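G., the chain you wanted modeled:
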Amino acid sequence: MNEAPKARALIIDDDASIRRSLELHLIDEGFEPLCAADGEAGVACALNDTVSFVLLDLRLPKLDGFEVLKAIKAAKPALPVVVITAFDDMQTAIKAIRLGAIDHLGKPLDLDQLDEVIAKVRKIATLSTQAFQFCDTPECSFEPNTLVGRSRAMKQVFKTVGAVADSRDTVLIQGASGTGKEMVARALHFNSRYQDQPFIPLVCSALAPTVLESEIFGHEKGAFTGAHQSKPGKFELAAGGTLFLDEISEISPEIQLKLLRFLQEKTFERVGGLKTIHTDVRVIAASNKDLAQLVAEGRFRQDLFYRLSVVTIELSPLCERAEDIPLLVSYFLEKLRRETGHAIAVIPEEAMERIEAYPWPGNVRELENALRRAVLLSPGEVLLPETLQLEGDQDLQRLPLQVKSLPEVEREHIENILAFTGYEKKRAAEILKMSRPTLDKRIREYGIRLKEK
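Predicted structure as tokens:
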């Protein structure tokens, strides 16, 4: 009795060693591997051979990997393509998913993750034979609203953003305070085809219920005391774009009902108004509380919860994705350089060890604020460890800046920089942004003792 033919998997990669490693692994997984060393050969093989799925590198000779992906999806939209790349960042992940890839894996490849993808491919094999259409959206341009991370949890967020960015469906973002819910909302908006339309954020807990209702829906002249003229609400201001409702769990039952009606019918009336207004606005909501639990407790409408959570994105606390911290530090230091003009060029090992060891209960927001404070209090290019005020750090001493004179502070700072540079006065003068003669003068004035190198 003849064995059934093995499913074929196509590997498109210009690195012979990677092709060989993937070949052997796919053989072990029961596939018959095919290989192509450049983009043009990969497209020809994908279109002319019976292939179950494709492993596609992005940096290829003759034809760029994204062009290969577009060509394959145009001809065979149901063929699963898995992108593999050393450029394992948000932009690449979003672009790959939006162009139709079913997954995005970084190099060096984690074979356990590859096996998970292979299992996913096998699950959708029957759908593929029925011409199931994978995500097939046009290429988009990217704005600076960037998410940062290399953890598995953040990569999943990148993929979800890529998959749903162009949809007008409601998205619910859940996560603890400070995890970056608004940044995810901005990534959804500014990586979509609606990026040129308004993005309007509103923190629901910051306003009293009556004021919040007016802010969201607007009001007519005379609707309440002090309403001297008509005012459009956020739904009208966000027309064609996105309204981001943060801390959605805090809205009153009355506003919940009006919001539910809008999500169902895309219509509303201003406070005190009779005219029904229609507007096309995508709603992205966020909560640091478990809305499902609030529904179970009778504190949030179940029907509204279902409308809000068409797609749900869960953000993990920073302590569960510690591998993201170095990237976040680099990102925030560059952000602060642009905002303040103060460039930090050196982070001592002691400071980085404390940053990586700290649990960050306030998550990404706390990290940014801690770095902002440290940058502002570090006079030169070195981020001084003592400027990192981390809550609960037993080894941290209070900053002495308020109880010491400026000369005392300057002397300590010069001593710190000299020690950091191994008492190389030329490098210390560069970091301190003073001339070598001025440094020598300060050393004499303050009686600073230099250790032998």
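The domain at 152-316 is CATH 3.40.50.300 (Rossmann fold).

Shout if anything looks off.
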